């Protein structure tokens, strides 16, 4: 039998078998895309809180200009890193995480500065923004966890037989990158708490 006929025959046999992944692989990739979209949505939610937070702090802590500018710059850098589901390579995900980490760090410094201003901490708008930021950090953690679960399922389909055979013959998909802890304690959402 010629090699030209072997591949179509092998493909037909593979597709006829149960659990071949013809539908499972694209569905799993769609689930990864949806989960990644939610991750980006939650990070954007955090970035959207930054201008109001900076303006509120600026009203009370005008001489903290360097800290405020660092937050604004980190926000700009974090919002520039956007990835589609096809760009989820380990290198790109690390770049995304680094940009988000810089924003997280800058926000942490800003919130630490706010501790020195009792009138700021008493401001209702600031307390509301603080609560929204804390809630957003929790949402980010949940979205990341869901993404990790979806990527694990997809990666299993494209790397574990028999669905990996379908992937090799039909789709040629590469495993998607996972989040990793980039620094000690990075796997935990930052605590956002103020003295009362």
Shape: elongated
Specify the structural class: mainly alpha
Poorly predicted sequence stretches spanning 5 or more consecutive residues:
none
Taken in chain order, the helices and strands follow as HHHHHHH
The whole-angstrom Rg is 23 Å
* Helical run tally: 7
Using DSSP, what is the number of strands? 0
- Rounded mean pLDDT score: 86
- Cα separation of the termini: 80 Å
Largest sheet: none
Portion in beta strands: under 5%
Proportion in helices: over 70%
Provide structural commentary.
The longest helix has 37 residues, at 24-60. The chain is mostly helical. It is built from 7 helices and no strands. The mean pLDDT is 86. Helices cover 72% and strands 0% of the residues.
A few lines on this structure:
This protein has 196 residues and is an all-alpha fold.
Keywords for this entry:
elongated, 196 residues, mainly alpha, 0% strand, 72% helix, single chain
List the helices and strands and how they pair.
Elements: H1 3-16, H2 24-60, H3 65-80, H4 90-114, H5 118-122, H6 124-159, H7 163-171
